[in-house]
Amino acid sequence: MQRTLIRIGPRQVVGFCLALSAFELLTYMASDLIMPAMLSVTEEFQADVRHVPNAFNLYLLGGVCLQWLLGPMSDHWGRRRLLLIGCAAFAAACAAAFATRSIEVFNALRLIQGMGLGFVVAVSYPALQEVFCEADAVRLMALLGNIALLSPLLGPMLGSVLLEWLTWRELFLALGIAAVLVWLGLYACMPETVGVIRRDGQQQARVAFSMRQIRQRYLALLGNPRFLGASLALGLMSLPLIAWIGLAPLLLIQGLGLTPLTYGLWQIPIFSAVIVGNLILNRLLVTHSLSRLIQLGLWPFCLGLLALIGCAMQGLGLTATVASLALYAVGLGISNAALYRLALFCSDDSKGLVSAMVGMISIAAMGIGGSIIAAIGGGTRLEFFALWAALGGLMCLPLLLWFLQDAKTAFAAPE
Fold it and tell me: By three-state DSSP, how is residue 197 classified?
């Protein structure tokens, strides 16, 4: 996978991909590593347990709130500079959690830490698309997704083990130190992709930074029904998985009385299934169009969510619920990276701005949907979670089916 379009050497390519994947992993680890300790956090601050899903949703909200600005800023000043700033801010917010003394300050820092996710989506993803050609970019997006999924896969279990020797405050301090090391890697290896002539002769030109023009460009995107449908579908497709991450500590540790380590072990089948789906995507990319891959992924996606509804109706318990989520997760892994690429190229506007809007819409759908599921009792009983999460995920189907009706979608992205 060395068909890069920017003029950089093989070592820099490897270093760039490793640093980018490490930063993405850390932005997720900052959430998932601490999930087994969230009940301890609320107990230490003498706060209500509702802050467990609230802190997670604030993290997602942080990923949304700056993306509208980060995309256009990176189009004008460059991706490299913005990502370095974002990584530094993320490191500082993680380190600051070590000294927090109230749940309000803790939640505020969760919001700031979540902004690191916004830098990943609005700045690093467009850079990746500009460095590599289409097929390699989709493969790397899937592989980066696998690396990011190591966080919810290993994060709860690793957090449970580390909490035997460290406090949750020391975990955040360790995350801050790791982010500093990633910053050094990005500084050394990340190329600038804006204003640089690529090997194919094309150039991602710098775009003037004007708030009036930015507003007009965002309004144009909101007036693009294909783009809007794909972005909303991205968020709704991931909603059951996001809701599970936020509510699993309440459902498994508080509701079923499992230990934090056992809670971590129950995450393995679900997130391993997403990785399996991404690996299937990587194998099928050679012979299938992106729209066809999404169609194939919808089979396990829908079967898993329908099985989840059956678990809710019949009260089949934890094993059946996790098995249904795993089947759904295979379909999500097959289709997610392909749908992101198609959404990104639904518009000819600069990819920093388009990626920011994709991220804002999809993450907002996840955060709002997760909050609604928590508010209507999704964290109180496993059956309630299974029912509401499945219904939320299935809401993406009308959008996806309408989006895929146009056969030209398969050729929306340039080679």
Answer: strand
Q: Residue 236 has which token pair?
A: 């709704």
Q: Which sequence spans correspond to the domains of the chain?
A: 11-188+209-402
pTM tops 0.85, yes or no: no
Concatenated DSSP letters for 103-169? Answer: HHHHHHHHHHHHHHHHHIIIIIHHHHHHHB-HHHHHHHHHHHHHHHHHHHHHHHHHHHHHTTTS-HH
**pLDDT score of 190 more than 90:** no
30-49 pLDDT per residue, tens: 887 888 888 888 888 888 87
Q: Please tell me the class of the 11-188+209-402 domain.
A: mainly alpha
Q: How many CA atoms lie within 13 A of 388 on its CB side?
A: 21
Please name the residues in contact with 188: beta carbons below 8 A apart, sequence gap of 6 or more.
15, 19
**Angle, to 10 degrees, between the axis of helix 225-248 and the axis of helix 397-404?**
150
Provide the 3-class DSSP secondary structure of residue 4: strand
3-state helix, strand, coil in the chain (%, to 5): 80, 0, 20
Count of residues for the chain? 415
